[in-house]
Amino acid sequence: MPRNGVETLSTKPNGTGPYKFVSYEPNGSLVLSRNPDYFEPDLPKIDKVEFRIIPDFSTAVAGLERGELDLVWGLPPEHVNKLKDSPSAHVSEVQTGTWEMFGMNSRLAPFDEPKVRQALFKLVDRAAIADIALFGHGAPTVSPIPPYHPFVLQQGGADR
Question: In whole angstroms, how far apart are CA 155 and each of 11, 73, 139, 159?
């Protein structure tokens, strides 16, 4: 990016990536075209990419099934099952580090008592909650580090 390009970064970005900025319509779309000057020969392979901004996932899923969209990224788990048997769409899932937490403020009663926190930790069926909340597309853990990560804490401590 040129040194004097900061002021126009959001409206006319400039760089050396595989695609060049064509247009941006707030709450509408972002259009990019293949950069013929890209340093890697024969890349990118796609001439034009259009990102449509669709805040409602039901609308995005319908567009995907009608063939109007090629990809919907970050699909909430409740929509994954709807597309599982779709004749026109394919769903791929990858593990992510996304983490939802049920926290207790240990400065407020009754959570200021470790035994109360330990009892809640033992009473709550974390697997059932994860299954319900994430429509079968998640796993319980005791840490923000994903359970599949090589440095994950071993699940053992009840008061974490």
Answer: 48, 31, 13, 11
- pLDDT, tens only, 43-80: 999 999 999 999 999 999 999 999 899 999 888 888 88
Domains plus CATH for the chain? 17-83 (3.40.190.10), 98-160 (no CATH)
